[in-house]
From TrEMBL:
Name of the gene encoding the protein in the UniProt record: ALK2_2
Gene Ontology terms for molecular function: kinase activity; oxidoreductase activity, acting on paired donors, with incorporation or reduction of molecular oxygen, reduced flavin or flavoprotein as one donor, and incorporation of one atom of oxygen
Top-level class of the enzyme under EC nomenclature: oxidoreductase
Protein name: Protein kinase alk2
Top-level division of the source organism's lineage: Eukaryota
Entry keywords, A to Z: Heme, Iron, Kinase, Membrane, Metal-binding, Monooxygenase, Oxidoreductase, Transferase, Transmembrane, Transmembrane helix
TM regions (residue ranges): 6-26
Catalytic activity, EC: 1.14.14.1
Cofactor: heme
Record family assignment: Belongs to the cytochrome P450 family.
Matches recorded under PROSITE patterns: CYTOCHROME_P450
Amino acid sequence: MGIQTTILQVSAAIGLYILYLITTSIRKRFENARFARQHGCLPPSKAPVDWTFNISRPFVIAKIRKQHKFMPFTQAAFQRNGNTFATSVAGKRLIMTCEPENFKTILATSFKDFDLGKLRHDNWAEVLGNGIFTVDGAEWMHSRAMLRPQFEKSQIMDLDDLEKHTQNLLSRLSSGDGEVINLHEYFLNFTLDFSTGLLFGESVNSQLGHDTSAFAKDLDYAQRVISFRVSLENFWWVYRPKAFTQAVKNVHRFVDQSVQLAVDKAQQGNKEEKEGKYVFLEALARETRDPIVLRDQMMNVLVAGRDTTAGFLSWIFYCLARNPRVWDILRQEILNDFGREKPTYQQLKDARYLKWVLNEVLRLYPLVPSNFRYANKNTTLPLGGGPDGLSPIFIEKGERCVYSVYAAHRRKDIYGEDADIFRPERWGEGKARGWDFLPFNGGPRICIGQQLALTVASYAVVRLVQNFERIGNADMNNEELGDLTLTFMPYPGTLVRLYRDAQASRSSD
Ligand code: HEM
Ligand SMILES: *[C@@H]1O[C@H](CO)[C@@H](O)[C@H](O)[C@H]1NC(C)=O
Ligand SMILES: *[C@@H]1O[C@H](CO)[C@@H](O)[C@H](O)[C@H]1NC(C)=O
Ligand SMILES: *[C@@H]1O[C@H](CO)[C@@H](O)[C@H](O)[C@H]1NC(C)=O
């Protein structure tokens, strides 16, 4: 009797609970539908394949990634399904868009409705802690405010350091005339040297063969693990090899040493900036002495700027190696403007064809080709709904919106029939670009290092182009590749031969 009542009570409770779930779900649907109607929303088109129940799918994707063809693959998905469509990962709806109006809404107009999300934070935080690159909301605003002045000041740094590291790069490159080299490896060392010098005041000088390769190895490995874990979605935490924990420890120890020195210096009370070299960390240590905050922010800035700038340089030479016509025009401009001299800031800014080349590379090979945000409340995107895709769409709280800058940059209705072609001259044809050209993101979270990145890249390009007469493509495969996944995979696309300019070597000997 007692047992029977208990069973009865339990089943009643379960029944009520299920009823509760059903009614809330129905109510939610109803409310969402009403909300959508009020905002004129229509459903987006759907990609036919459900990613959940297709066992082969993750393996297919992994293979495509390995071949550096993930971006062309997603571009094709947009061509099939429209500029905004819904798909699903692990049973959850996901919105994909390459619509500039939607970029603007996610990143600016409705900035407060979207977050980087807990997944990105938790995965990255093991390496980056709580820094500008990983946090949202008020915490992010605080980080941004703390770092902004340092970036403004770093823009007026003199170019001596940059020249020094560029010369080291040149001597590395010049050792073999016309030999096949993988440029990307050289650029990774170059940007590591420059970044550590600017940020910490002390460069690891990998290009001089200093025994700092441990730091670079540990940092690259840690990033490789993080990047792999992104593909595990919610289960990112299952992969945490011992070597990873050790690598992170090593990297942090390295950064902590510099932090300690900077804090000591700041405590010695030199409130004013001393003359001489600008050091990012020392400036930051005048804002806060908290060693963990300093470590986290330094890690964030280092990781955000180093691989991206190296990748940018790699894509520039990838394109130049395949377009001798552009190489010749660029070289002519550079020799006319600068001769064999060091460029100044103003000269770099005024070099017109150089600017076009850089823009064209960023258009076809944006370094952050695809990105995402999570809605932190029910909201809408202005385009993608209905059969013509011109109505708004409803975005439920918690849904992920993936925005593909790569695909937008190659839309023929925006850039013309030759959108897939590398043609720098298009930047001189008077079309002002807005949200349809977004290599550095936009809105409040726009890349804070944009000016710095453009300066470093233009500077290195000028110095290299001055020194080499010709560049040859040595990539046997020579297929159109879509994404240089940073340091993570051997990349065939930047195999080149560089031929020294006899005149340049004579003047520098
Ligand atoms: C060609 C080189 C670069 C490209 C293409 C690039 C691109 C980007 C993009 C797309 C974002 C937005 C990421 C997001 O919000 O999800 C970003 C953010 C950021 N970038 Fe860059 N970046 C470059 C170089 C640099 C450099 C050199 C630095 C610093 C030394 C830097 C520091 C940052 C930081 C700190 C953020 C986070 C800003 C925030 O969330 O408020 N970047 N960058
Ligand atoms: C908004 O989102 C919440 C949480 O998912 C949900 O319960 C609610 O019904 C949604 N709809 C509206 C119109 O608020
Ligand atoms: C699963 O994905 C593969 C690769 O994208 C595709 O060829 C295949 O048709 C899909 N199968 C189903 C049942 O959707
Ligand atoms: C990059 O630096 C490391 C450490 O000094 C060195 O071992 C490696 O050869 C360098 N790579 C290139 C391509 O110069």
